[in-house]
Design goal:
This protein is mainly β. It is built from 1 helix and 5 strands. Its main location: nucleus.
Length: 111
């Protein structure tokens, strides 16, 4: 038994679709300059483990993206556990980092 394939007919792009609406290719962004610009501001860092968060002033960040915070407060499950002062957080422990200005830390039981 033989199968005969017909040639594939391609239609040109319709005139209603402009080339500018084509999706742009993904451009990776280097986060280091963005984070360097945030030195001196208050940030909130969430660790990958045990719902732990640290809120403090970003003191510095190195080439491996290890983070140094000063005036740091620790929160576990949204509850404050105390003030830690100067804290170094290794880069591979960080789940996310954000600006602490937009986040209000409250006790989870009070909500």
């Amino acid at each position: 038994m033989s199968v005969r394939l017909s040639p594939l007919k391609l239609s040109p792009l319709s005139s209603s679709r402009s080339r500018s609406s084509a999706p742009k290719p993904f451009q990776p962004l280097n986060p280091r300059p963005f984070l360097q610009a945030r030195v001196g501001t208050e940030v909130l860092i969430r660790l990958k483990w045990a719902q732990t968060e640290y809120k403090g002033t970003l003191e510095s960040i190195d080439s491996y993206m290890n983070v140094l915070l000063r005036d740091t407060q620790e929160f576990i499950d949204g509850k404050p556990t105390g003030s830690l002062g100067l804290v170094l957080i290794r880069c591979n422990n960080i789940l996310y980092m954000g600006s602490a200005d937009a986040i209000e830390m409250t006790d989870m039981e009070l909500k």
